[in-house]
Amino acid sequence: MSSGFGHFAVADVFDRTKRSAVMAAIKGKDTKPELTVRRFLHSLGYRFRLHGSEMPGRPDIVLPRLRTVIFVHGCFWHQHRDCRFAVMPKTNVSFWSKKLEANSARDARNSARLRRLGWRVLTIWECHVGEKGLRQLARKLAGNSVAAAPAGVR
Ligand SMILES: [Zn+2]
Predict the structure, then answer these.
(1) How many structural domains are present in the chain?
(2) Domain of residue 136, CATH code
(3) Ligand 1 centroid vs 19 CA: distance in angstroms?
(4) Centroid of ligand 1 to alpha carbon of 147 (angstroms)
(5) How far is the CA of 74 from the centre of ligand 1 (A)?
(6) Which residues hold their Cβ within 5 A of ligand 1, which is an ion?
(7) How far is the CA of 135 from the centre of ligand 1 (A)?
(8) Phi, psi at residue 142, to the nearest 5°?
C-alpha cells in the first residue's frame, strides 16, 4: 500500500496523522493538483473556502481564520522560475512571452494587494504537489501563529 513511500523517513518532522494525510493526498494521482492540496488540508483539519471571488487574483484556497490564502499555480501559465514545466513555446514566441509575462506581473500585483489587505499569501507550484511540497505547506501553515481573523471577516 505504501510501497512508494519507503524513503519517507522524516518521522520526527511529521506526526503519523500528517504523514498518512500526505500519502492519502498523493495517492490519487489522476486528480488535479488543486484537489490534492485541498484534500490534504482537509485531512489535517483545516477549514477553508474556495476561490475567493471577491479577492485579488481569486485565490484557490482561502483560510479565513489563519488569514492565509493559497494559490496552486500551474508551472507553465504562472512561469515557475527554473522549472522544466515552464519552458517557453518555440513558436509564436512574442505572443507567448507577452502573455506569460503579463500573467506573472498580474500574480505579483495580486499578491501585493492581498498582503496589503492583511493576508498571508502562500503559493504551491504544481510540480511541488508531492510529499515534500505538501510537507512544506503544512509546516508553513502550522507555523502561522497569527490570531484568528477579526469578527466579520468571512
Ligand atoms: Zn514547477
Answers:
(1) 1
(2) 3.40.960.10
(3) 23
(4) 32
(5) 7
(6) 75, 80, 83, 85, 125, 127
(7) 16
(8) -65, -30
| Cell (9 digits) for 45 | 483539519
Domain that includes residue 18, residue range: 11-142
- Taking the centre of ligand 1 as the mean of its atom positions, its distance from the CA of residue 101, in whole angstroms, is 16
> Which amino acid is it at 140?
K
pLDDT tens for each residue of 18-70: 666 666 665 544 458 999 999 999 999 999 998 878 899 999 999 999 999 99
In a domain, 5, yes or no: no
Average pLDDT over residues 109-138: 95
Summarize pLDDT for 60-110 with one digit per residue, the tens.
999 999 999 999 999 999 999 999 999 888 899 999 999 999 999 999 999
- Which residue's entry shows cell 503559493? 123
Q: Say how far residue 121 (Cα) sits from the centre of its chain.
A: 9
- Residue 110: inside a domain: yes
Check if the beta carbon of residue 64 is closer than 8 Å to that of residue 46.
no
What is the total residue count of the chain? 154
